[in-house]
Write a structure and sequence with these properties.
globular; about 325 residues; UDP-galactose 4-epimerase, domain 1; seven-stranded parallel beta sheet; Rossmann fold; about 40% helix
């Protein structure tokens, strides 16, 4: 009765693994370690090193570990870089999802939680992003996640009248930060928190890209959500699927309010004790003023809540990074 976590050696996936274990759903991990770390996988959790593009390996893993459901976290997650590497992005995220679905069908596994992205919405001009908003992804990454959702939807339709119809849900979220375990931290070179941490550790000054946006302090406002809260929602979704309880096709894991980049910088200085005045650089092309999602549906069904303050997000991430 185990659950397979694809990408379970990565920053988010490793937290999902821990959340599953805490929920009494034994996890199994498959990861090619292209961005993950075997040391992030807890001791005693079965680990298979390999690519989700290897259909035979995925199916073998599903069968050997008696997997009953999959949480599909693996993917190429760098939206900005995906513009320069669209073919790689589509291979990893679209073909990877197709292969996982095919292996699940062959192995008789019929429950799936898909780690999607709020990038499927693009840059909507609304105060709060809701699940029914039109999908207008602005990068190959966002497009690949939306196509992944379509693949899952179509497979569910195709299997609806079979003995094992696919039951699924997709979780969409923006900026995942912090740490729920001091042995796991964000190693991405493209995310705000690790970028600032590395600057501070190197004695350099972090930068804000533009301070003339139409927001209260002039800097971008975004959803920042703690990785432990994200992981817990994945585990609740898996538990509901395992119990045969109804779920929506997709949920936003949103903060409802958002935080500005300047608020993040202020918290960084406050929590780390390293005083600094961030440099102000030019705007990045295409950056909208504000993107924040509601989490009402997820709060109703997945026990979703943004349980951490900005200082707690920074402190947990900083402590984990310094222990590395």
């Amino acid at each position: 009765m185990s659950w397979l976590v694809t990408g379970g050696a990565g920053y988010i996936g490793a937290h999902v693994v821990r959340a599953l274990a805490d929920a009494g759903l034994p996890p199994v991990v498959i990861d090619d370690l292209s961005s993950g770390h075997e040391g992030f996988v807890p001791e005693g959790v079965p680990f298979v090193r390999g690519s989700i593009l290897d259909r035979a390996l995925v199916e073998q893993t599903l069968r050997e570990h008696a997997v009953t459901g999959v949480i599909h976290v693996a993917g190429y997650k760098y939206a900005g870089v995906s513009v320069q590497r669209p073919l790689h992005t589509y291979e990893q995220n679209v073909e990877g999802t197709r292969v996982v679905l095919a292996a699940m069908a062959d192995a008789g596994v019929d429950k799936l939680v898909f780690s999607s992205s709020a990038a499927v919405y693009g840059t909507p001009d609304v105060p709060l992003v809701t699940e029914d908003l039109p999908k207008r992804p602005a990068s190959p990454y966002g497009e690949s996640k939306l196509i992944g959702e379509w693949l899952i939807r179509d497979q569910a339709v195709a299997t609806a009248d079979s003995a094992q119809p696919l039951r699924h849900t997709s979780l969409r979220y923006f900026n995942v930060v912090g740490s729920g375990d001091s042995s796991v931290y964000d190693t991405s070179p493209h995310n705000l928190f690790p970028i600032v941490f590395e600057k501070l550790l190197a004695g350099e000054t972090p930068r804000i890209n533009g301070d003339d946006y139409d927001t209260p302090d002039g800097t971008n406002v975004r959803d920042y959500v703690h990785v432990a809260d994200i992981a817990a929602a994945h585990a609740v979704a898996a538990r509901r699927l395992a119990a045969g309880e109804p779920v929506e096709p997709a949920y936003n894991l949103g903060s409802q309010n958002g935080l500005s980049v300047r608020e993040i910088m202020d918290a960084m200085a406050r929590v780390t004790g390293i005083g600094f005045t961030p440099e102000i650089g030019p705007r990045r092309a295409g950056d909208p003023d504000r993107i924040v999602a509601t989490g009402e549906l997820a709060a109703r069904d997945l026990e979703w809540a943004n349980r951490h303050t900005v200082d707690e997000m920074v402190r947990s991430g900083w402590e984990a990074r310094r222990r590395a």
